[in-house]
């Protein structure tokens, strides 16, 4: 897939005092490190000694991260508990991770490149992320087995079915390969829920089509540069709509599951983008 084009000046922050923005960025970054670094060894120990607590700690941690970043969540619906759940979501930015994690105790299915990023890969592993290299058929099979194992343990797994992040103005066609994992094993009572994510305001100003690259991380944007600008930017408003749970048995295979979830997520994203 060709990389999306974006405005090289999209991360400029008009109307915001540069000095104040820089001070805010350093305050947020310092607070993030002071919160994160002490909790990393705690989570490592919990993964080995108290798995149930290891599932919940990242949820509470990311709620604090969202407060620190100034991310204001508007949540409609909830992820079901105590059942195996596959949550199918659209993907806009790296901040989708704390946003979704703040909604419920979940784990992610991420591309293998994330597992090689310094520091980020460690955080991802501490949250029990499942990594997949979609270019290697053998790896997809291993991930399918791991997803089946995790669902059998009543985990909630988040799948970014577009396979990449976007500018927030659209939902790309869903890729069907990893949907097969939900059908791979005879796991009782697997539920499927959709999650639509729409960023609506930055610093209290409504985001229009041309402005959403302030939040969206896509194409050839450098993550460090984008993250620093976003730390300086100020409060971000996001709508998260969680669909009602639907039994996996209601879908006739992975293609039907992909088509249904894609239609639901796209409809909700369009509704929020139009301010409805």
List keywords for this structure.
Glycerol-3-phosphate (1)-acyltransferase; 276 residues; alpha/beta; disordered N terminus; 9-stranded mixed beta sheet
Q: Give, in order, the helices and strands.
A: HHEEHEHEHEHEEHEEH
Count every beta strand, where a strand is a DSSP E run of 2 or more residues. 9
Q: Main beta sheet: strand number and arrangement?
A: 9 strands, mixed
Reported CATH architecture: 3-Layer(aba) Sandwich
- Look up the CATH topology: Glycerol-3-phosphate (1)-acyltransferase
Overall form: globular
Q: Which stretches are poorly predicted, pLDDT < 50 over at least 5 residues?
A: 1-11
Percent of sequence in beta strands: 15-25%
In short:
It is built from eight helices and nine strands. It is an alpha/beta fold and about 280 residues long. The radius of gyration is 18 Å and the shape is globular.
